[in-house]
Write a structure and sequence with these properties.
By secondary structure, the protein is α+β, with helices and mostly antiparallel strands. The chain contains five helices and five strands.
């Protein structure tokens, strides 16, 4: 008769003392399996001494090349390396990619503008009136052109 042993977020179903145990993943967890390297899978091998997740990542050094789509429809290639479970978080992936860093900065800038639009009643009034909105847009365009001219001189 198998024995049930409680584990962290798992239940280990251990058979008789001489047999193998199986780990049952609790129903509120997700198991994600994906090929994390561009190399063909090697033949199965027994690797001893990999007792922690960090040692597994250190031994196998998973990485993957991905193509990211740009606004103009072109693509850019990025390589993501994984040295631990934390490298799968959005922030860690963004830090590995120059392209994603730029997108994140643009996103933050847009969110700040939206916040300003919601909080700044004067600006909101300017945008609501079509005549003042056109004048405001023209002023912004002139400012952008002036900044580009200054940037071109440097």
């Amino acid at each position: 008769m198998p024995q049930n042993k409680a584990g962290i977020a798992t239940t280990i179903l251990a058979p008789e003392p001489a047999g193998e145990g199986f780990i049952e993943i609790s129903p509120n967890k997700t198991l994600f399996i994906q090929k994390l390297t561009n190399e063909d899978p090697p033949l199965p091998e027994i690797v001893k001494g990999l007792e922690t997740v960090e040692k597994v990542f250190e031994h196998f050094k998973p990485n993957v090349d991905v193509e990211l789509n740009k606004e103009d429809g072109s693509t850019t290639k990025e390589n993501f390396a994984f040295a631990g479970l934390g490298d799968f978080e959005v922030k860690a992936l963004v830090n590995q990619s120059g392209f994603l860093k730029n997108l994140s900065l643009e996103n933050d800038a847009y969110l700040k503008v939206i916040s300003q639009l919601k909080q700044n009643q004067s600006l909101n009034n300017v945008i609501q009136n079509p005549a003042t909105r056109t004048a405001f847009v023209n002023a912004l365009k002139a400012l952008a052109a002036e900044l580009e001219a200054i940037e071109g001189q440097e």
